[in-house]
Write a structure and sequence with these properties.
Elements (H helix, E strand, L loop, with lengths): L6 E8 L3 E7 L3 E8 L1 E6 L2 E6 L2 E5 L4 E7 L6 E8 L1 H10 L12 E5 L2 H15 L5 H16 L13 H11 L7 H7 L4 H10 L4 H19 L4 H7 L5 H12 L9
Antiparallel strand pairs: 1-8, 2-7, 3-6, 3-8, 4-5, 4-7, 6-9
Helix pairs in contact: 1-3, 2-3, 4-7, 5-6
Length: 260
């Protein structure tokens, strides 16, 4: 039996102010701004998070995200993404919080000593390969419990769309040469059935693969010091120029913009 990934951790650290257009939140997300400022924009307005503030973002939402370093310094944020199964486990174990309204868009809390201690404890477990699945899940639940005691909870997971399922599969190996047949086989479907179901959701297999690869590339550019060519290869692009063109089309600037 394959265990699900309870949660994932990511560090964003950059000296370059940048906009991530129409960024989709695929898993419920908890993060905090260590340095600089984060701005979330929608057609209805803008929400800002400064250093020392935590941001909580519900899955299924979409934002224009602006990350702004301090003058002559860094933008740094730490993130934990929580799998739907982890949210379900939380609600099963801590039913006393069921009456709290679920986060609909985004929320905020202070990244005070209690928050940072709990968050860093979870991050350390999620980033260490030798830590067991049970411990990782326990640490992720600790973060959710701390937020719930502050009146912030995520809603119980909805049934995943087919596009979400494809995104989750491809994100495990964005470098792989995914075809429609490969994807369909993983879901025990015919290629035509998978394409039809994705088409009903307004997307396609190739578009899903491209989205995951470029989102993975953005995460690596923001959180690692890897060369652009290495990032391109890790995200399934054999051609540096094709990767640059696809990235520029998606985000509005070349990958090298984040490598001053």
């Amino acid at each position: 039996m394959t265990l699900f990934v309870a949660a994932t951790a990511q560090l964003i650290r950059t000296r370059v102010p940048h906009l991530v257009r129409t960024a989709a939140v695929r898993d419920d997300l908890v993060g905090w701004v260590v340095s600089g400022r984060k701005r979330l924009r929608t057609p209805s307005g803008e929400t800002r998070f400064s250093a020392g503030q935590a941001f909580i973002m519900a899955s299924g939402t979409q934002w224009d995200m602006i990350n702004e370093p301090v003058t002559n310094g860094w933008y740094e944020a730490r993130l934990i993404g929580l799998a739907p199964q982890t949210i379900e486990r939380f609600h099963d174990r801590f039913g006393q919080f069921s009456a709290l309204p679920a986060v609909q868009g985004c929320a905020s809390t202070d990244a005070d000593e209690g928050f940072v201690t709990t968050f860093d404890h979870a991050t350390a477990a999620l980033l260490e390969p030798s830590v067991s699945h049970a411990v990782r899940e326990h640490r992720a639940l600790e973060v959710l419990l701390l937020l719930a005691e502050r009146g912030i909870v995520f809603g119980q997971s909805r049934e995943l769309r087919w596009a979400d399922r494809v995104h989750r599969l491809v994100s495990q190996r964005p470098h792989a040469p995914w075809t429609v047949d490969d994807l369909a086989h993983a879901f025990h479907l015919s290629a035509s059935t998978l394409q039809r179901r994705l088409g009903e959701e307004g997307t396609s297999a190739s578009r899903c693969v491209r989205e995951v690869r470029l989102e993975s590339a953005m995460a690596l550019l923001q959180g690692t010091g890897l060369q652009v060519s290495e990032i391109a290869a890790r995200c399934g692009y054999e051609s540096h120029s094709r990767f640059t063109a696809a990235f520029r089309q998606r985000f509005g600037y070349a990958p090298s913009h984040l490598r001053p």
